[in-house]
Amino acid sequence: MICVTLGRTRHKMMVADHRALVERGADVVELRLDWLRNLPDLGRLVHDRPGPTIITCRRPDDGGRWRGTEEQRQMLLRQAIVDGVEYVDLEEDVAGKIPRYGTTKRIVSYHNFETTPDDLEETYARLRELDPDYIKLVTMAESPADNVKLLKLVAESDVPMIGFCMGDLGLVSRVLCGKYGSPFTYTTFSRDREMAPGQIEFGEMRDLYRYNEIDADTRVYGVIGDPIAHSYSPRIHNAVFRKEGENAVYLPIRVPADDLQDSLQALAAVDVQGYSVTIPHKEQVVGLATYPDDAVKNIGAANTLYRDDRGRWYAANTDYEAALGSLRAGLQERGDERLAGLKVLILGAGGVAKAVGLAAVRADAEVTVCNRSKPRAKALAEQLNCKFINWENRGSSFADVLVNCTPVGMFPEMDETPFPAHWLREGMLVFDTIYNPENTLLLKEARERNCTTVSGLDMFIRQAAAQYECFTGRPADVEVMRDALRRAISPIRNLPVPGPDARSESAS
């Protein structure tokens, strides 16, 4: 089940939101009495409650906002039990002072907002002695491995246990705790009103991650990077899983740059089947796979890790084929059959540029690399065995094909372009690997000058579809992916601003 935590300063709004959440399908609603501006009127909140309710009142030391006395707080908790509320949350130090009565279930809880301590088992043992119906043990994740510690404890508990980690590193356990036996997870009622660090909004937990469908057999996939909150990969992969009725979930997993190998070793305990890989891990993961594909060997970077039925790990770079496919689609629209002999100017020298450059070089195109940093451009040119030019000279280089692999023009700086309009030449193929927005200023100006254009959204979908096939052995429904991505980047959605590399994922 999904529990939605509700904090409001006014009784009227808490009652209204409680009813609205139940109408939206919330399984359980936690009323945070400590958020109310005035002394809580418990009768007003619970006598006509629309569904199962948890009464919680947190002190500041426990991450709450309670401003009254401790005697008043405990009196409210006792009154909630007398009134027959379904659940009451009791911290470890007060659980022994508030006796069991009637049908109310006791959640005996421990929260640590600083760390995930080493003595979790000892803490669990103490809570177990306090007559709980449910034990709740929630800590701050300092690494992906902390999620595994909590999930292991949930799985081994002989008392129903709610256990997960807080913070952006804790999303894994917030979503997967039900897979290991947690009675419910906690979400926030609004993306703008996070009740605890790292809480997921109710609609996302229910619809994006399909929490109530997760069980012991659910297959787990994810995208690893740092930062990772901006990633749209969970939206497109989960959309296909949902459409196909797959018992699978795809998660954004923040893995710090210096913690890759230890994190992946720890996450093996939750049986992750495959990863999309983004910055800063694309080069380091190559050494963790036994079987890298040819593109990975040549580029020195991977954007996909997946394993077979025998547990052997493979590394792929789906950006390579996605870039080549996007270029060929654009050329076909222009009436060309092949890249061979065409002059290709690549702006940028990062991971996307490497994939695009290798695809073009192998197709016998004449490739030139240009980057703000001359040493990086020179290094990539040497790797690809092609030419490079200085950034300030990019407009003087004749090109049949222009490919932008820089973040210039990406949301929210959508009024910028890496290649001024007066440098564009009629008949060029202009490929912008940025996908948010789909229609960049570069592409708009290119079409105005009768250029053929290719959007980064096309490459993004191609590489994601190839990843899906690596993960599942089956082709992806690209139209479902395309629709999910377009919905995600729509300006009417209040989504997090993408990070510094929201191009083909490559940028995941």
What topology does this entry show?
Elements: E1 2-6, H1 11-23, E2 28-32, H2 42-46, E3 53-56, H3 70-82, E4 87-91, H4 92-95, E5 105-112, H5 120-128, E6 134-140, H6 144-156, E7 161-166, H7 171-176, E8 185-188, H8 202-208, E9 219-225, H9 233-244, E10 248-254, H10 260-267, E11 272-277, E12 291-292, H11 294-299, E13 304-307, E14 313-316, H12 318-334, E15 343-347, H13 351-362, E16 366-371, H14 374-384, E17 387-390, E18 401-404, E19 429-432, H15 441-448, E20 452-455, H16 456-472, H17 478-489
Parallel strand pairs: 1-2, 1-8, 2-3, 3-4, 4-5, 5-6, 6-7, 9-10, 9-11, 12-14, 15-16, 15-18, 16-17, 18-19, 19-20
Antiparallel strand pairs: 11-13, 13-14
Summary tags:
single chain; 508 residues; alpha/beta; TIM Barrel; Rossmann fold; 3 domains; eight-stranded parallel sheet; six-stranded mixed sheet; 20 strands; 20% strand; disordered C terminus
Describe the structure.
- Mean pLDDT is about 95; it is low at about 490-508.
- This protein has three domains: about 1-215, Aldolase class I (TIM Barrel), CATH 3.20.20.70; about 235-320 and about 460-490, 3-Layer(aba) Sandwich (Rossmann fold), CATH 3.40.50.10860; about 320-460, Rossmann fold (3-Layer(aba) Sandwich), CATH 3.40.50.
- The protein has helices at about 10-25, 40-45, 70-80, 90-95, 120-130, 145-155, 170-175, 200-210, 235-245, 260-265, 295-300, 320-335, 350-360, 375-385, 440-450, 455-470, 480-490, and strands at about 1-5, 30, 55, 85-90, 105-110, 135-140, 160-165, 185-190, 220-225, 250-255, 270-275, 290, 305, 315, 345, 365-370, 385-390, 400-405, 430, 450-455.
- The protein is α/β, with parallel strands linked by helices and about 500 residues long.
- Helix 9 (about 235-245) links the parallel strand 9 (about 220-225) and strand 10 (about 250-255).
- About 35% of the residues lie in helices and about 20% in strands.
